[in-house]
Structures are given as C-alpha cells and as structure tokens.
Amino acid sequence: RSFECDLYGKCFSQSGHRNVHRRTHLGERPYKCEQCSKCFEQAGTLKRHALTHTGEKPQQCPQCGKCFAQAGNLKRHVLTHTGEKPHQCLQCGKCFAQARHLKTHALTHTRKKEHQCPQCGKCFSQAGHLKRHALTHTEEKPHQCLQCGKCFTQAGNLKTHALTHTGEKPHQCLQCGKCFAQAGHLKRHALTHTGEKPHQCLQCGKCFTQAGNLKTHALTHTGEKEHQCPQCRK
C-alpha cells in the first residue's frame, strides 16, 4: 500500500513519511526546543539540535577518539584519516571529501566570475576567494600562531602549521598504519602502496608519483638549474 501526498501527489511507503513530507509544504514545525523555543519539522532534528545545548558528543572517532554531536559530522571527519574523496565533479573530474565542497567547486564551472581584483584584474566566482587573493598583494598575514608567532594568510594554513607544535598526526594510512599531519601527505604516501604514478613528463613519457619530482625531472630536458648559488651564480 502507498500513501499519497494530497498536495502534490508524491507517494510514500509509510504514512509517517507522508506526514513529514506534508509539513514541508504547510510549513508546520510541531517539535519545539524547550531551551530556546526553536521549532522543527521532525523529532529527530529536534533531538540532534538539543545536543547543542547540552554539549554532549556521543559520536566518537575510532581512529583518534575525537567526538562529535552528530553521526554525519563523524562520517565526514573519518574521511580525513582515509584521504578518501567520494564526491567527484562531473565537469573536470576533481574529487572532494565533502558534498558541500563539491557544490562550491561546481560554481566555478557555471557561475560568472564577477568579483574582480582591482590590483591585477583576476576574477573570482566568490567574494571570499577574492578576499584571500587580495592578501597576496598586501602581504598581510592576519592568522598568527599563538605558539611561535608565525603568521599566515589563510586560517587553513595556520591550522596545518599548529600540528607541528602538537605533534598530532590525524591522517592514518589504512594499509600500513603510518600517520601523517596533513591529508595531502597521506594521499601521496598512499601511491607507494598502489604503485600509481599520475604525473607524466610530456617530453619523454616518464611517470612520477609526485608533481614535485616531475618538476625536478623536467629540468633535465631544459638544462635549467633550479638552485643557484647567490655568491658565484653557479
């Protein structure tokens, strides 16, 4: 038996699911938080919201012990250990760990780049990206490490740097158990297990696991010497 929504005709296998669906059309929110009076369409949503008042975090990561209020947040966190990026862009093939990051990235293919840098004319699809880019012209570094005073242009870079003080290595290889401070380092390490060499030289076809190794190799074709002595220019 199916239960049909009398407003839009959509069918559901259970009457409860149909009733929840109807609330999205009617704007009904029968579940009220006793702490802040905020209302919700579903009891489960209210239950998750209540944790923001109690501070309870029942979802624990088995890898590092970090706790979360919601199972979804734990699920996203686990990807930082595995390096897995299940959300792929259909336009360019780039992969992301979280769906919201893919959604933001997708705008780079469809959205006009209406935010222009007054310094160099480079355009961006998001105001936040322009703001971060502007720091490259001013050399401003607003994010300072409280441990050593080193400054960074982006908060993410500061967060990564902070791990050098704590010694924390939250990204663990599932193959051999080796741990890394950064997800990118884990990703490069994983290639040593698979044997994959995604970076290919266009001159001779030789392949490398890391882009940096390919860049160094490319100099053998051009004759360029990347590192020059400041004293004798050799």
Automatic annotation (TrEMBL):
It comes from the Eukaryota. GO terms for cellular component: nucleus. One of its GO terms (biological process) is regulation of transcription by RNA polymerase II. Its main location: nucleus. SUPFAM superfamilies: beta-beta-alpha zinc fingers. PROSITE patterns: ZINC_FINGER_C2H2_1, ZINC_FINGER_C2H2_2. May be involved in transcriptional regulation. Belongs to the krueppel C2H2-type zinc-finger protein family. This is C2H2-type domain-containing protein. It comes from Nematostella vectensis. The lineage of its organism: Eukaryota, Metazoa, Cnidaria, Anthozoa, Hexacorallia.
